[in-house]
Amino acid sequence: MKNFHPFHIVDQSPWPLTAALGSLFLTSGMASWIHIKSPLLIMLGLMILIITSYQWWRDISRESTLQGNHTKKVMMGLQWGMILFIVSEVLFFVSFFWAFLHSSLSPNIEIGMMWPPKGIEPFNPMQIPLLNTTILISSGISITWTHHSILNNNLTQAKKSLMMTILLGVYFTMLQGWEYMEAPFSVADSIYGSTFFISTGFHGLHVIVGTTFLFITMMRLNKLHFSMSHHFGFEAAAWYWHFVDVVWLLLYSLIYWWGG
């Protein structure tokens, strides 16, 4: 059937429903894990989300690469959708920065009227946090290298630099996990512990999601899904990764350096 418009009318798909169910099981499972120490529901939700993500990504890759459904008009819609998604993520982190600044600029009597609160030993910002900052800045450089390589149709350089970015993301996650294990305070240690672990923890989750995004992009790059003029799948991953970089710079500046 021939279309006489530039838009993509998507086929019926079960993946929005399964994604919603997976999210429901995941969040309910988190509550179940915290209160009754049962990981069954959270593992079920995670498994459903992983399978759904794989299948949904597969369908979108087919629509854009093999079926030619992503016209310029569709691409513009995808670009605006990604921009609005990143804006919503910015506002998500603004709430954590707001909570941290509110608590640190006006510490109440319950925490000793001082910041960091009495009894809290903060991390040295010149140790692992500084290394993590260097890692993420380096990954931002390498993902830009990948973009320029794709624009110049140099797939060899694109693959090397993208793999470097993925490895840096994994290294960052490992160091962040090690830092958590060595932390001299917990999430239950006053407002400092709460804001620290919530802010850095959600950022770490975004790094894991971004690394997965880049890994899928690597698979598509190996399958020659991207060209000089048609590679928005990669651009969306790169935008997301730069967003993760900027959030970390703010986290490092406010929470590790100034707040500590």
From TrEMBL:
It is a multi-pass membrane protein. GO terms for cellular component: membrane; mitochondrion. The chain crosses the membrane at residues 15-33, 40-57, 77-101, 161-178, 190-216, 237-258. GO terms for biological process: mitochondrial electron transport, cytochrome c to oxygen. CDD domains: Cyt_c_Oxidase_III. Residues 3-260 form the Heme-copper oxidase subunit III family profile domain. The keyword Transmembrane applies. GO terms for molecular function: cytochrome-c oxidase activity. Gene3D superfamilies: 1.10.287.70, Cytochrome c oxidase, subunit III, four-helix bundle. Keywords: Membrane, Mitochondrion, Translocase, Transmembrane, Transmembrane helix. It is found in: Membrane. Pfam families: COX3 (PF00510). Component of the cytochrome c oxidase, the last enzyme in the mitochondrial electron transport chain which drives oxidative phosphorylation. The respiratory chain contains 3 multisubunit complexes succinate dehydrogenase (complex II, CII), ubiquinol-cytochrome c oxidoreductase (cytochrome b-c1 complex, complex III, CIII) and cytochrome c oxidase (complex IV, CIV), that cooperate to transfer electrons derived from NADH and succinate to molecular oxygen, creating an electrochemical gradient over the inner membrane that drives transmembrane transport and the ATP synthase. Belongs to the cytochrome c oxidase subunit 3 family. This is Cytochrome c oxidase subunit 3.
